[in-house]
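Format notes (please read before filing issues)

Several people have asked whether sequences and structure tokens are stored in separate files. They are not. Every record keeps both together, in the order shown below: the sequence lines, then the token lines. Line labels are part of the format and must not be stripped during preprocessing.
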Amino acid sequence: MPVDALASTLTPKAQLLKIVTDSLRAGTLELPSLPDIAIDVRVAINQDDLNIDDLVRLIQQDPGLSAYLLKISHSVHYSRGNPVRNLTAAIRRLGLNAARDLTASYALKTLFLIHDPRVKQSMHDIWRRSVYTASLAHVMARHCGFDPDRALLAGLIQDIGALPLLANLKAFPSLCSDPITIQQLLNDFTGKISGLILHNWHFDEELVLVGLNRENWMRDKTPQPDLADLVLVARYHTYLAERSHRKLPQLSRLPAFKKLRLEEIGPEQGLAFLSEAKQEIDELRSSLL
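Then the structure lines:
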């Protein structure tokens, strides 16, 4: 049977999967690009002769990013009781590595602003969960000995693989009105494509693993906890108030939960210390949405 004839016998879902998997194998899948400001800041901060004033001038080219970094510098995590007066002081308070990761976190939001009405709601829902996961991971990181701002970035990038999937939906109108099938596609392929995109962006292996294992609940590859374990447990908490939570394994059964030595379970089967940090989590979510 000719290839075209074979393709015509496939369901729309199977055709979309074939397009994505074939493109993945051939290396031709259209991947989103990391926004320029995030790349420019990463390059600037990696220079040995970095001048903080030059970095400030670069960031000031994006007023939204400047306002975001100022706002984060005044947050519960960074504030020392006295507000900073300018962006230079904000970056000094945050530190260069935090400024780099927070810039990437801010820039990611623009990738999820797709105005196609057929996928707009799905994109919005994915970004909201990513933001919630990232905010929880940021708070958990301090409790578990990880870098909070790196954990925030990890939470935001884990769903980046959904973008090419949703972008290809426009060729299959029947799928756009089938939310169950769309969700199944996202569940099956987002992690694999996230890993590919993060590798393409030259992110390190630890962050690539976060994307690959975004809902690999029973992952147990290493005896020591890593960032993927932290983000897994954070993501798990985003489902606690949803009916879909009933389909997940118990939190205490997750290898990541055991490796992180998270033994404090609250009355809603989540980590009690996260409930106590609700103000900080809500503040972070608000700044990113």
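For reference, the curators noted about this record: The domain at 116-288 is CATH 1.10.3210.10 (Hypothetical protein af1432). The first helix runs from residue 3 to 8.
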